[in-house]
């Protein structure tokens, strides 16, 4: 076995038989330091069994590692739950999200999801083409039904006339009346395009914010003075219609 002086570090080679079964005290020839040397088999047992304080330290280190693992697991679990909650809110409350952040409508459409930030849908759209002498006129009337769960403030309506290539050749605006619609009820609107471009081929309807309508909103009459609108004239020429009744 190899002996190392604990004082000066000098190494010595000693036969196991010279140490004996119970060990012996040896003296360093270099520095004169004496120390007790155990036989090889006892020395191995001593090294294999850690001291009590080392066992305690290792136990504390393992406890801290276990706490760190649980803390990391809980952190990832909380982050996952928050992500799931935000995803669910983004999906189930998409109309409210688009109402607060209109630009997000493009994201929803990218995933093929319909959004209706106004809470309204077109219904009963009627479009007619007539002539005032030789001037062509297109009249578009219809209703806006509140499909949401609460009272909504009515927006404006935009009507685009397009040619066969899909290019807009005329645009007119109107307002839905009354200003507020209860759930399940409907408002009305009407748009007149005069003169109508001769290349008009199809029309597209969409809801827009009231602030985007370039004209002033109509002054609403009291409820007891409202007169039912006259029925529309029979169509002279049919348009290809887009944008109704689907929301935007």
Binned, the helix content reads 25-40%
Number of strands: 13
Structural class: alpha+beta
Number of helices: 5
CATH class of the domain at 120-242: Mainly Beta
CATH-defined fold name of the domain at 120-242: Immunoglobulin-like
Tell me the fraction of residues in β-strands, as a range.
Answer: 25-35%
Shape: rod-shaped
Span of the ends, CA to CA: 90 Å
What string gives the helices and strands in order? EEHEEHHHHEEEEEEEEE
| Main sheet makeup | 4 strands, mixed
Instruction: Quickly give the CATH architecture of the domain at 120-242.
Output: Sandwich
Radius of gyration: 44 Å
In short:
This protein has 248 residues and is α+β, with helices and mostly antiparallel strands. Helix content is 27%, strand content 31%.
Question: What is the topological layout?
Answer:
Elements: E1 2-4, E2 11-13, H1 16-19, E3 24-27, E4 34-37, H2 40-48, H3 52-92, H4 94-100, H5 105-110, E5 120-132, E6 135-146, E7 152-153, E8 156-162, E9 168-175, E10 180-181, E11 186-193, E12 202-208, E13 240-242
Parallel strand pairs: 12-13
Antiparallel strand pairs: 1-2, 3-4, 5-6, 6-11, 7-10, 8-9, 8-12
